[in-house]
Amino acid sequence: SNRGALRRLLTTAYPRRMNRSAMIAIILVLTGACATGCGGIAWEAIDVSTLKGAKEYPGDHGLVLEDLCDATFGVDTSGRPFHERTIQRRLRLLTERARQSNHLYAIHYDGQLDTLTDVAARIVKPDGTSLEVDDWVDHPASASNGLHTTARVRVANLQAASPGDVVELRWRHRSYDTFL
C-alpha cells in the first residue's frame, strides 16, 4: 500500500536521534486511516537485526525510528465536532542511558476535553521476541501552581526494556476542542 511504502521510506531514510533538542514530528494525514494502527490490530513483525543501531549512530543513546500520526475530523453521534489522532511511535534504545530516560512513557491529555483509547505498547527484543506492556497508570497531572486542573497523564512502565530493544507505542487521542 502507499502508506506502507511511505512508512518504509521514512523509517529507513529518516531515523531521528532522540537526543536532538528539537524533535520534528512526521505528520501523515490519511483520510479514513484511523481504523488502522491501534488496539485490536496485530502489531507488525519487526526484524530488529535489520534496523539501524549503535554502529550507525555512535555516541547517540537512542533513535526515533517511526513517529506517525493519522488525523481525522468528524462529528460524534451527539453532534459534537472532534479531532482524532492515531499515533504510533517506534523507538530504538541504544544505551543504558536511553533505557533509564525512557523507562516511563507518559501521554498527556485533558481529562475534560480529550479521551485516550486503544492505548498499547510492546517491547521487541533483538532475538525477535516481544513483550506486551500491560502496566499503564492513569492519574491527574500534578499542577505546580496548586490550582485545579483537568490535565491528566497515562504512563507506561517500560522497565523490561534493555539497550538494543525496540519500543513501540500506539494510542488514539480524541479531542473535543471548543475551537472546532
Structural features, described:
It is a single chain. This protein is 10% helix and 40% strand. The protein contains 2 helices and 9 strands. A 6-stranded antiparallel beta sheet has the order 1-2-3-9-5-6. It has a 3-stranded antiparallel beta sheet with strand order 4-8-7, with no helix packed on it. 21% of the residues are buried.
Put the structure in a nutshell:
This protein is 10% helix and 40% strand. By secondary structure, the protein is mainly β.
The CA-CA distance between the termini, in Å, is 31 Å
- Secondary-structure element series: HEEEHEEEEEE
Tally of DSSP β-strands: 9
Would you identify the regions where 5 or more consecutive residues have pLDDT less than 50? 1-39
Short descriptors:
single chain, 180 residues, mainly beta, 6-stranded antiparallel β-sheet, 3-stranded antiparallel β-sheet
Topology, element by element:
Layout: H1 2-13, E1 16-17, E2 62-75, E3 81-93, H2 96-101, E4 104-110, E5 114-124, E6 130-132, E7 136-140, E8 151-157, E9 166-175
